[in-house]
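I hope you will forgive my troubling you with a question about protein structure. I should value your view on which stretches of the chain appear to form regular backbone elements. Here, with my thanks, is the record as I have it:
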Amino acid sequence: NKFELPKGSLNKKLRTLEVHLNRSIKIHEEAMLKERKKEPDLDNMLKKVPVIKTGKDDLRQDSDGLDEIYTDAQFVTEELGNLLLETFGKRALIPELKDRNAAEEKIANKYFGDASKVRDISRFTVIAKSITQ
């Protein structure tokens, strides 16, 4: 036992995760069926979307200083946020930057102190009725 866990200690947790994962897969499949009915050419459209393949470790900020990362994120949020608001109006949601304490905790616990790995300081949402909207 590599992690020296008591035998069977994860069984219940893994089953719970499996239930949630299967639910999520079912919701996704139902949503895709619904979208395919609205847009019969959806699969061909999706094939045309370029996929950027990179390892998670390759995705890093230009800086490892959290102050600079937050300054850059604020600039991007303002610039891209304004563009999204101009383009999509009220359908564009531009939330505040990630809470600084939450970012520091994530950097410490998930990225072993490497701030350059944090990628979710700013985020955006555009609400649409369908994938083609």
